[in-house]
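From the pipeline queue, job 12 of 40. The input is one protein chain; the requested action is below.

Action: predict structure.
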Amino acid sequence: MAVANASIFITTVLEHVSAVWLELVLACLAAFIYFAHSAKAATSKRSKYAGTSSATAPQTKEQGNTSPYADKELTASQLALKAMRQGRMSEAIALIQHSPDAIRRVPTDLACRLLLSIAKLPKSNMSAELKVLTGKISSQALDAAILEAIKVKDLVACRQLHKLSGLLSIPKSQQAFEVLAKVYACDATALRVLVEEASSPLARPFAVMALDASARMKDSNLAAEIFEKTSSTDTAFLRGVVENVSAPDSSSMETTSAGSSDRSTSPDGLDDGRCHKDANFSCKEVAMRANDIRSCGKNGDLKGAMKVFDRLGSTASSTLIVNSLLDACVVCNELDQAVGHFNEAKNRNAADVVSYNTMMKGYLANGQEAEAKTLLSELTKKGISATRTSFHGLLNARVNARDFGAAWKLVAEMQAAGISPNAVTCSILLKGKISSLADVIRVLSLIDSMDEPMDEVLFLSVVEACIRTGRLDLLSRQTEKFLQQGASANLTAPTYGSMIKAYGHARDVKRVWHLWDQMLFHHVQPTSVTLGCMVEALVANGRTDEAWQLAQKMWDDVNCRPLVNTVVYSSILKGFAHAKDTDKVMALYGEMKAHAIQANSITYNTILNAFAQGGTMQRVPALLEDMKAATPPVEPDIVTYSTIVKGFCNVGNLDRALKVLEDMKASGKHAPDEVLYNSLLGGCAKEHRPDEAIMLLNDMKKFNVAPSNYTLSMLVKLMGRCRRINQAFTMLEDISREYGLRINIQVYTCLIQGCFNAGQTGKALVLHEKIIKEGLIPDAMTYTVLVRGCVQGCLLDKAVELTKCAYGHGPSASKGTPVGLNAGCLEDLISALGSSEGKELLAELGDCQPAKSGSFGQKGSAKGIGKGAHRPPTGLRAPPPWHQQRA
């Protein structure tokens, strides 16, 4: 029995053990499958992140500890992302700043992640650290960050992102404005700031959202501000939007959860710009009355504005109405009344930033800049956020006063207040015609930091500033930047014309043609002014043939034919006349007649000037007949007569020139002037006819034409050539006394030359002493004439003394930089002195150089002086070119 029981026990135990063993085996098998599957999943996950970046793959603390060299393989951007995930924002910003990928702009994905990380911090106080990234974050990154915050309905982060956009000068796209308008649908203050930041005119979608929000918040002030910044073409549509939103609800009063009416009022019972729901005037009516007040002000009817204001009763206390009245008072120049209403508004705490800006505008218009500056300081102390408008008025005043130091200080204050300069700021600075290269470069730096496209108005100001400072290299850089922004297709013909003119002055013909071709490539229709700038640029650079070919090409195009006008042809004529190519002048004139392009007086005078310079005066009568036959006839003017006179004098036909003078006086239409008389006196000097010259001098007195030093120089030359030097002395003394004319160094030089030619060396040397006593400074030509005269008169000691003076040695040396002698004069003196004395003189003078070319008669004229040749003295007021005589 015992054995049987034991057997049964053993059998039972074995059955239980086998069952447990089976369960154990199954558990082990399950564990094995689990771990195998987990390993496979981990391997798959690692391979997935290996295709992107190690910085973005999730890592456990153990993995980080087992890979001490992992960070060394990460880029600066990846390390920055890792630091952001771990909350080390200062380190992340430093890494981004030094990242090679973020030298000019932070990559969009990295910038988006940074903005979101900063925006989500509980209390971000990283303004100073973030400043290093100013201007380096794109609008695309801001858009992505705002959309990411909107997805998770994080409105606080959206507000922070808006603040960051101002701090870091991030340009906001239209999408950003629209999204933020939705975010601020219940926050009038924030929405007002957003509207202020948006450029005018407001885009319609943004204006609709802003107006919808302002109407729902019953903020008529904000609605009026939005309407002021919208396009006139959108006004009707937007008014419909407001009317739809402002339609009366089923209940006239809103109730709180407790069932009581809830009306938001200011402590003194005023609505602070918002309409009471049970007020006599709706928000729409208040906005209309505010518009009436402003309209009266613009029309100069302040009494009418006051009548509207008085009829409003208690509603007149709203900020919108007060601001409208302030604006009317300022526009009508009634500043005292504006001050009274402004002070009342301040006492009721109803004055906002618009109120302050309006008063500042009034003070500035009245020249009370100090008061405007005080208001700006008061604005800050009251905790009211200033706007760009708050600073722009003062900035404009300082720029107009050319106080650029104070202007830059205001810009710094703007930036310190978190207001980044925009295109208007830069335009105001450039409007002041900045002539300092440092200031221009500073403005260009502001433009670069704007990180928003330049508009054409600002670009034109940049063009003018670069031209004014002579830095066309900066202009080229800004032009390339402007065109890279895709603005080339938006440039107008006048802008292209300004740039063409600038590069024409810089003699950069290649760039001139490049701009012209670019204008045509973008299908910008040139104007007559643009074509005129192009033609003038080519002519001024000696490319007159190219200018003519361009005009012909434009004429062949039916659409461009009206642009080829008289001005264009006159410019080309001027180029051929300057080159003395009379044949091409006549060919071009014939083309004008064939195209029925009416020639004017400038055209005919240009052709006459070509005849005068080319010596083809036989063509003059036929051209004068053409002037008479023109429809309407072109009357000769004083320039016409002067040009003909000059031409006849140049070809040695003084009698014909005098006949022209008599014909002009007989017509009684024009009185002779100094230019015409100087041409005739030049002709007298050329033909050695002193009697006619004296007659002309008396004629000048009859017609009240005062002689100039240029006139005297020709008289002296004439008398010197005719051996009547004593008469020259008498004439100079009489004329200088009668007309109060101070004889200049060039006239004295001519007189000295005349004395040497007449063999009166003593008088010539006395004149030198007189020049020194009168405080005149002899020039290189004066000393050259004196030295040559002394050498020819065998006064070598005096010649040596004068030479030393010319080179800054000797008792009567000239003040300032030594003028020296003209080329060849010193060599002639050394040759006359002989080898020994010549070497001594050269040793004493040291490293002497001849006078710079460009002085009176220096180029090959020095040798002729001793032989009686008389060339126009340096510095004398020679007759200007014909086309400059009658600007």
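Job complete. Confidence is low (pLDDT under 50) at residues 40-70, 247-281, 853-887.
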